[in-house]
Amino acid sequence: MTKICFISDTHGLHRSMQYSVPKCDILAHTGDVSNVGEYSDVVRFLDWFIDQPAKHHVYIAGNHDWLFQIGKEKRQDAIDRYPLIHYLESSSVTLEGLKIYGDPHQPEFCNWAFNLPRGKKLKEKWDKIPEDTDVLLTHGPPMGILDEAPRGGRVGCVDLLDRVYQVNPKIHAFGHIHCEYGKEQKGSTLFVNSSICNESYQPINEPILVEVTK
């Protein structure tokens, strides 16, 4: 049994979280580690992240994390400074016998980072998700699952949903839509929205711990 803890959307407020990260085998963050992706903010997050009680640490960027899209040299420096932390961007890593794939892209949203238009370009990204993925990390949700924005209705990606149902990972974890924090089981896949911040950007939600059998 592997314990995976999911967090997301800490927005630089990781040290102010109401709940502590529990001891786990894998700690996964699904994006928006910062507010606007300043190098110093990302490094402060990674300093904290590596100290959390997990054997393995893995994360992806989110739409607020501009450093990972446009700051090539500083981005690589931040990644290289923490060789024991796994950063995923259209890539995968196998930890505790589980294949984890991560991708930060999302449907266009307020001109933020990692935006792609709905349709062909996003579908091309999701088509790269390997068939043998056990745990899928994206920043945004699939269409119709924990994706209802306060003023935008359902904002998830239908092509992502289609690919998830093709791959059938054990877990699909994401964040982005703060007010839809929670879990939902659909078929063989557990969907997890682990946004730590609520809609008012208060870090009040509890990290979500899931036990997985390989």
Fold and architecture overview:
The mean pLDDT is 96. The chain is globular and about 35 Å long. With 214 residues, it is α/β, with parallel strands linked by helices. The chain starts with a strand and ends with a strand. The relative contact order is 0.20. It has five helices and 15 strands. Strand 2 (24-29), helix 1 (39-50) and strand 3 form a beta-alpha-beta unit. The chain has one domain: Purple Acid Phosphatase, chain A, domain 2. A six-stranded mixed sheet has the order 5-6-9-12-14-13, with no helix packed on it. A five-stranded mixed sheet has the order 4-3-2-1-15, covered by helices on one side. 20% of the residues lie in helices and 29% in strands.
How many strands, what sense, and barrel or not for the largest sheet? Answer: 6 strands, mixed
CATH class call: Alpha Beta
CATH superfamily: Metallo-dependent phosphatases
Which strand-content bin applies to the residues?
Answer: 25-35%
C-alpha-based Rg, rounded: 15 Å
Percent helix = 10-25%
Give the mean pLDDT: 96
> Which stretches of 5+ consecutive residues score pLDDT under 50?
none
Which shape, going by the Cα principal axes? globular
Structural class: alpha/beta
- The succession of helices and strands, N to C, reads EEHEHHEEEEEHEEEHEEEE
